[in-house]
Structure formats: structure tokens, C-alpha cells
């Protein structure tokens, strides 16, 4: 296992090295990262995406450019790049720009909902963006209202866990216990890094909550404890082969969105290494 892990890490590092090239590398005749990352895309059992918070330090245009360099097309759109109160015209302009860049916005979020008004805004925003799912973190006292909106809009709500510091949803079970008897369109977005810091074995969580698992935020952490820090995927505490096997066994149909929170002002090398490692693990599991 250790030799295979080293091989996958070295392969990912080789891919990561190419991201030091300018973002306009393809236009300048230089190789694009997607040549490395997409060669076996059709064989991959799980679609890979990016959680928009990864690009929190960059505007929409630069985020699109980075996704194109990475060869990833699925995006969980964060309001950093398109405000929740944006007009329909502004939304249409942004979504057209994303489509022209080859980006598929498959969901929006994470959106925090502390009031009924915030819930209303989130669902109206998702409708304007034309997506059928919200990654959200609603307060307990607005869950009933959120369920009403799920039924009204026929838009799924995937509730995101945020680790041991989170008073609402530290781990997946804290989400599941609140939604298990609610509308089947309310489920989980398991953030595997935060779940691991909360003491959860994520492969077991995938199996346990498979019927309500809508989305995944994929990351790694230095240690499986509260003090764990974001790190490149494959270098930390999470057993990714076990996770991928669990996803295959349960027939997971959602997106695996990379959320990279280390070196956020210069994330490309770390994201590329992370994607390379994760795709390598998926290929090994085929």
C-alpha cells in the first residue's frame, strides 16, 4: 500500500508541476493540465468537480480559467462569485460565461440559512441559476420552512457538516438525525475533511447514509482530530481507497467536488496534486 500510495503521489506531483505555467498556457502553445487529467476521464466511475470556495481569492473569470487548466468541468457555485441577491440578468450573464468556459454548475452553496428570509433567498437563487440542488447549512428552527421550499421548488437540499467547531452539524450523523424523517429530497453533503476531524470514518458514513447522500466535498486533513489542518489529498489521514470502494459499493451517483483550503492564494499546484491522486485512486479501484 505504501509503495502504491507513493507512486500515486509522485504522479500527482508531476501533474502539479505543470500548473506553474501561465494560465494562458494552451493559447501560448504549452500543454494544458487537462491533457494529463482527462485522458482516462471516460473510464472514471465518479465525476469530479470543484467546490467554489476553493477559488475564494479569485474572481469568476480567473476561477473559470483555473478550472479549464485543471480539466474539471463540474462546479458547485459559491456566492463569492455570484451574489445571492444578483438580478436574473446578472445571473444569466454569469451562467452564460460559465457555459462558454465549459463549466457545468451542478449545484450552489454552501449557503447558510439562519432565517426564513435566508431560506427563501437561497431557493430563489437556485431557481435563477437553473440548478436542482442547494448545498446548505440551515439552522434547526428553519428546517420546517426549508422542507416547505424543497416541496414548492422541487429543489433538493444537501446539508453540509462543518466539523467539531460547528454547533449545528459537526458530522454526517448530526445531519442525518435531523432529516431522516423529512422529505426524501433533503439529504447530506458530506464534507469528508470536517467529518474526519469530528472522528468519523468517512467510508463507513458513506455506507450508512447512502440513501440520503447527495454530494461530497473531497479534501484531506493532516490528522483525524479537531486540530487537523487542510492538506493535499493523499498526504493526510483519510483512507481514500476505502472511501472510493465504499462509493462504488453503494452506487453513489453524485459529484465528488474537491474543496482545497490550503494555500488559497496560490491553490493550483495543490489542487492539481489532489485531483491527480484522487483520480489515481479511482483508476486503481476500477
From TrEMBL:
<dbReference type="InterPro" id="IPR050312">
    <property type="entry name" value="IolE/XylAMocC-like"/>
</dbReference>
<dbReference type="InterPro" id="IPR006311">
    <property type="entry name" value="TAT_signal"/>
</dbReference>
<dbReference type="InterPro" id="IPR013022">
    <property type="entry name" value="Xyl_isomerase-like_TIM-brl"/>
</dbReference>
<dbReference type="GO" id="GO:0016853">
    <property type="term" value="F:isomerase activity"/>
</dbReference>
<dbReference type="Pfam" id="PF01261">
    <property type="entry name" value="AP_endonuc_2"/>
</dbReference>
<dbReference type="InterPro" id="IPR036237">
    <property type="entry name" value="Xyl_isomerase-like_sf"/>
</dbReference>
<protein>
    <submittedName>
        <fullName>Sugar phosphate isomerase/epimerase</fullName>
    </submittedName>
</protein>
<feature type="domain" description="Xylose isomerase-like TIM barrel">
    <location>
        <begin position="140"/>
        <end position="279"/>
    </location>
</feature>
<keyword id="KW-0413">Isomerase</keyword>
